[in-house]
Amino acid sequence: MSQGAEPAAGPPHGFAISSPRDFYGGLALVGLSLFAFWASHDLPGMRGFAFGPGTAPRMFATLLGVTGVVITFLGVTTKGEPLERFALRGPLFVTASIFAFAATIRPVGLVIASFVTFMVSAAASKETRWLESTITAVVLTAFCVALFVYLLNLPFQLWPHF
């Protein structure tokens, strides 16, 4: 090294994550994809042109995994924003809404369970506007009823049995 020359700045071990958000987000998608493959491993797949119950989950898991790999690669190759402080409020309320749906769908029916689920998930943000959230929950609940009960003819109980 000549006198006055600065050592090259760079990662100490030759590997740098230029965009940690993308890198770790991509890894999370790959992990979710692997979980979906594991969860659908015992479902039969496609036979000829007939879709089996495991075809769509594995197809979507493949697309999710490929997307995750691309995003992870971009996290290493492109400059991006650093990780920010992680807040628990969003994931906590979204998870609680899923458990609320699971706990209420049978005893109170699709209408009340869907509405409660949407309202609990709305609490995930500090910026929630409750009037708008209530209107959205009503519209989404009506959409769920129309889709699952009337269009797909699924045997969901709509209201509680008294």
List keywords for this structure.
162 residues; mainly alpha; 2 domains; 4 helices; 0% strand
How would you characterize the overall build of this protein?
It is a single chain. With 162 residues, the chain is an all-alpha fold. The protein folds into two domains: 20-77; 89-151, no CATH class. Helix 1 (20-39) packs antiparallel against helix 2 and helix 3 crosses helix 4 (130-151). The chain is built from four helices and no strands. Residues 7-12 have low confidence and may be disordered. It starts with 19 loop residues before the first helix and ends in an 11-residue tail after the last helix. The protein is flat and about 65 Å long. It has helices spanning 20-39, 55-77, 89-122, 130-151.
Write the layout of secondary structure elements.
Layout: H1 20-39, H2 55-77, H3 89-122, H4 130-151
Structural class computed from helices and strand pairing? mainly alpha
- Share of residues in strands: under 5%
Task: Tell me the number of structural domains.
Answer: 2
Major pleated sheet? none
Q: How confident overall, as mean pLDDT?
A: 87
The tally of strands reads 0
Percentage of residues in helical conformation: 55-70%
Indicate the radius of gyration in whole angstroms: 23 Å
Low-pLDDT parts are 7-12
Q: Note the gap between the termini.
A: 85 Å
From the spread of the alpha carbons, the general shape counts as: flat
